[in-house]
Design a protein that fits this description.
about 35% helix
């Protein structure tokens, strides 16, 4: 959560989180002379509803000064409010929270969602990474069966790792000698540079689990010797189904300027970005119902942190220009 700046009277410069576009959202510039209770309003020219550019550039590090000066200020002078920083609307959603966690977590239990396999196999991998499969160990822990021993070796507890580790020698060529968990085993395949090796691995694990279930319930199991070839066939079939025929893009429809209603004016505006100079430019033109130009302007502005911020700033400048030339 982060503060959305309105008039700046409720937000403290050093103590609160208010810098959008950064991971930590708080000020790291060395400002020892600044008291902890100084508010953001001291950085805003309340008459012009604009940042005090020179004060901000002198007080903060260059990259933080650019972020601060890019924060739009509303001429309506709204109150400061707390918003969810990972959505343009500022509203919290579970989808945005999940994306934030995925971007912060590089573990194999999260990275497997990017594998090119069926969704049911991805769900299976998530369950096995989170110890959510009905293995002998889990069934015994929930007092469903009397013993957690493996039915094949009658010695070791049958957890998710033991259920697949002794099945195929192919695992041992890439995996650590004695992995401590399935997540560690999966991680060794996720970092492999060989294309589709991680996909083949998770499909094999899924097939081995289905084979164990088939034996448990008296169904004919898939032979171990054919599991690798079966996994390759599954992957090829899935990738073939994902290939879509390229449809040539349709040319964009022609756009024509439409005049406003009688006794009304239309304000058109646009922005352009100059990456080499880290600047943006805006242009505004106002026309009457008959197409006559009532006013026009163009001006350079600082580069915005996002396209949405740039578009909002250009819209604000266009409205201010319309007011300056007497349109109400």
């Amino acid at each position: 959560m982060v503060w959305c700046i309105g008039i700046g009277e409720a937000v403290q410069i050093k103590e609160d989180w208010w810098l959008l576009g950064r991971a930590n959202c708080f000020v790291i510039s060395p400002v020892p002379s600044l008291a902890p209770d100084v508010n953001i309003s001291s950085l805003i020219d309340q008459d012009r509803v604009a940042w005090k550019t020179k004060v901000v550039q002198q007080m903060f590090l260059p990259h933080e000064a650019d972020i601060i000066l890019d924060i739009p200020l509303s001429i309506r002078r709204p109150d400061d409010r707390i918003i969810w920083a990972h959505m343009p609307s500022g509203m919290f959603t579970t989808c945005s929270a999940y994306k934030m966690l995925v971007s912060c977590d590089t573990s194999s239990s999260v990275g497997h969602w990017q594998l090119r396999v069926l969704n049911k196999i991805k769900n299976f991998v998530w369950r096995i990474c989170n110890n959510a499969l009905p293995t002998m160990v889990n069934l015994y822990r929930h007092h469903i069966i009397p013993s957690a021993s493996c039915a094949q070796c009658n010695a070791l507890p049958r957890d998710s790792l033991h259920a697949i580790w002794s099945m195929l020698e192919w695992f041992h060529q890439t995996a650590p000698p004695h992995p401590n968990s399935f997540s560690e085993l999966l991680a060794s395949f996720m970092v492999s540079r060989e294309e589709f090796k991680a996909e083949i691995f998770v499909i094999i694990v899924w097939l081995l689990w289905n084979r164990c279930n088939a034996i448990q319930f008296g169904r004919p199991p898939l032979p171990v010797s054919s599991i690798c070839s079966k996994a390759g066939s599954y992957l090829q079939e899935f990738l073939k189904a994902q290939t879509e025929e390229l449809v040539p893009p349709r040319p964009p429809p022609m756009q024509y300027w439409r005049p406003p209603d009688p006794h009304c004016f239309k304000v058109n505006f646009d922005a352009v970005v100059f990456l080499c100079s880290s600047l943006a430019g805006i242009s505004v033109i106002v026309r009457s119902n008959g197409g006559e130009v009532v006013g026009a302007m163009s001006s350079p502005i600082p580069m915005a942190q996002s396209v949405a911020n740039l578009e909002a700033l250009v819209c604000l400048k266009a409205i201010q220009f319309a007011l300056e030339i007497g349109l109400t």
